[in-house]
Design a protein that fits this description.
Helix content is about 10%, strand content about 65%. It has one helix and nine strands; from the N terminus they run αβββββββββ. β2 and β3 form a beta hairpin.
Amino acid sequence: MPKGPLALIVLFGIAMQANAQLGVTKLVGNNTSQYTTGFTAFVKAGYPVSDGSDITLEIGADIFFLNDGYGTADGTIMCPLVAGYRYTLNGTGEGFYVEPQLGFNLAGVTSLHDAAGNQINLNYHGVVFAAGAGYLFNIWRAPFDLNLRYETVVDHGGSNNFISLGISRYITFGKRNKQDY
């Protein structure tokens, strides 16, 4: 068996057992072409407010490395905390959904080297805006979320923007009021 599919199967198994919430991210916008594809680790929980919607809260870490000859010493890390409203299009709490989010970047650091080889760390915080869509489904009664999201962190007139593709075994608090008619 080729290594790629085997690694994907192992990663999926680990995610099921650990309630892991992982994503692959890409910085987009000006001056981002030298950044590698990054990754996201996050904890996201939801509380049902109706049969088809949840209030969500998420905290994560987004990590991007810079290809500049200094190995993995340079890059950007962000730790956003966001709240959102996840609405399933069919009104059942499963299936396709849309989710706007708003929050604050608790910590952000971009590390680079100047022309003399000295390391520079740029710290920032800022408002976070995100818009996402995805698909909620169950595998053996375990709830999963396959999602795509655009997020921007705004600080000092500039922003870091990225697109994220994630899969997670989501956490929910509370029960939906499903009735048989």
